[in-house]
Each structure stands twice: as structure tokens, then as C-alpha cells.
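Posting this for the archive.
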Amino acid sequence: MEGDIHGLDADLQAKTASLKLAHTRLENRTNRPGMDLCRDEVQYGLVNEVHQLEATIMALKQKLSEAQ
């Protein structure tokens, strides 16, 4: 059981790092100097990626709290 908890914790940290990267990419794309704000396929993909990572992190946190 402790191995599962450590595994969930490691997965949670990995997903959190991925979420930070996705947020940074989205922020950089949104705040490009000299460029108009465009809502294209890439923008929607980044937003979708952020939402999926947030949902995954919430599920991992719930599993971790249940395991503890």
C-alpha cells in the first residue's frame, strides 16, 4: 500500500510539472508582444491540455487521499 501511495505521489508531482509547463506555454502564446490574440486550433489545444491535466491532478489527489 505504501508503494501505491509513493507511486501516486510521484505521478502527482509529474502531472503538476506538466501543468506548469502547459500554463507557461499558454501564457506565452496569449501574451505575445506585437501579435494579435488569435483563437486558433493550437490555442484551443493548449486550453484543452490544461483542462485535462487539471482533471487528472484532481483525480490523483482524490486517489491519494483515499489511499492514505
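The chain has a mean pLDDT of 92. The chain has two helices and no strands.
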